[in-house]
Amino acid sequence: MSEKIKKATRHTNQNEGLIFEKSSPGKRAFELPPLDVPAVDPAKALGEAHRHEGVEGFPEVSEIEVIRHFTRLSTWNYAIDLGMYPLGSCTMKYNPRVNEFVARLDGIATEHPYQPQELSQGCLKVLQLLEKCLLEITGMDAITLQPAAGAQGELTGLLLIRAHHEKNGNPRKKVLIPDSAHGTNPATAVIAGYEVENIKSNADGQVDLEHLREQVTEDVAALMLTNPSTLGIFEQQVPQIAEILHAKGALLYMDGANMNALTGVTRPGDLGVDVMHLNLHKTFSTPHGGGGPGAGPVAMKKLLEPYLPTPVLVEKEGGRLALDFNRKQSVGRVKAFVGNFGVLVRALAYILAYGPGVRQATEDAVVNANYIRKGLEGVFDLPYTKPSMHEVVFSDAIQKKNGVNTMDIAKRLIDYGFHPYTTAFPLIVPGALMIEPTESESKEELYLFVEAMKSIAKEAAATPELVKTAPHTTRVRRLDEVGAARKPVLRWRAGVNRSEAAD
Ligand SMILES: *Cc1c(COP(=O)(O)O)cnc(C)c1O
């Protein structure tokens, strides 16, 4: 492997033990001055039931041992502050430090959700301004900031659609979903009580309009369109799709998690979309990973506004802001309070820092994905050749001939100091390599990534075993991923070894 390409170095310490193994009796990280007041017997003061002689097996270590242990462990993690995350679909972009600064300001960080509305006017103003920005960006009429994630936004959107159809006398039965949609879409439709009907993409990765015309009946509640799709391709026939649906009274839902390819350039509301969600923890840079917190606001046209989750932010006479809980047709609450306020603040900081420049963030995200596409075209197979938006999807068809698959290439990428890209998704591309650099990355970083991928492609042809057995530089090699998900060992117990703990 060329040293020039290899970015990250080995972990500082490959063999850090458990903190329990570092323990020796009597060590501690602090020392208190001698007691200068009368001693109290804890058993007498608290009652015998509360008396403990210490926790069995509790580690006894000095301060510097604690610090070094956890600092070394932290070097085993890859992070956006270390290098690029080329994960497609998840948009792992850098969260600018100014967002964190704003979220920690007094009055924002210390506001209590039960504080009276009269004393929360500043925070309500933050929410109102974010709502206005997102409505401008999406071209919609009304919005809720409440959902905590993209998937919860989808569910909220479908509940609004169901409420709309119920109002018209029939909730309808089916939701249509293209095969290039994100996996959460069909799951959401089922949870919202709908049957899922699949729509096949045509050879260009677009919705087949003829096929769609046949599928849209009076039974169809909505179509859920991921745009750009999980192929990283912009669906060009949104107005026609909307027209076909509307003619039968069905609605168009857009999965807008990939708005980082459209923000400032085109507005779903102008294209005929009725309702959509955004992923603030993707497009608008707020941090995510490890399960949250996130925010998945849902923006909609006027016809769905009556069903908004409560409370709804309203402006009273004199510009006073208030939360309206009294809305008869509301689908109800989907999350506590007003949603994840801290995430919402970070998104607003990001949008305001860019201003009209959000358009350039979009353009940079698209240029960066295309830089990688151009750099790797011919080296990796490109199954769909329509222009790429914010991400590009290759397949492992060329490397497969030598028995090397997308997972092997992703694992080898770790040796080159990069986080792996998304493997084996979307499902319509067998052996997919889904790559999204985001706008955060410089040309230099993109170049390093392209060179790493080219180098791995060469290895796959010349020394396939090297790639198939990667990673070679990490503390642990290929993990039992199913075992880790199904039988996680989350807690250390004295005297129980790891395999027993798993049972
Ligand atoms: C990430 C993503 C989702 C789901 O969002 P979560 O916040 O993870 O629930 C839905 N659709 C698309 C296209 C996505 O990329």
What is the terminal-to-terminal distance? 40 Å
Tell me what the CATH architecture of the largest domain is. 3-Layer(aba) Sandwich
Q: Outline, from the CA principal axes?
A: globular
> What is the typical, i.e. mean, pLDDT?
92
Q: How many DSSP helices?
A: 17
Number of strands: 12
What compounds sit in this structure? pyridoxal-5'-phosphate
Q: What order do the SSEs take from the amino end to the carboxyl end, as H and E? A: HHHHEHEHEHEHEHEEEEHHEHHEEHHHH
In what order do the strands lie side by side in the largest sheet? 1-7-6-5-4-2-3
The CATH top-level class label of the largest domain: Alpha Beta
Strand-residue proportion: 5-15%
Would you give the CATH topology of the largest domain? Aspartate Aminotransferase, domain 2
Helix-and-strand structural type: alpha/beta
In helices, the fraction of residues equals 25-40%
How many structural units, i.e. domains?
3
Cα-atom Rg, whole angstroms?
A: 26 Å
Largest sheet: 7 strands, mixed
- CATH H-tier superfamily of the largest domain: Type I PLP-dependent aspartate aminotransferase-like (Major domain)
Residue runs with pLDDT of under 50 for 5 or more positions: none
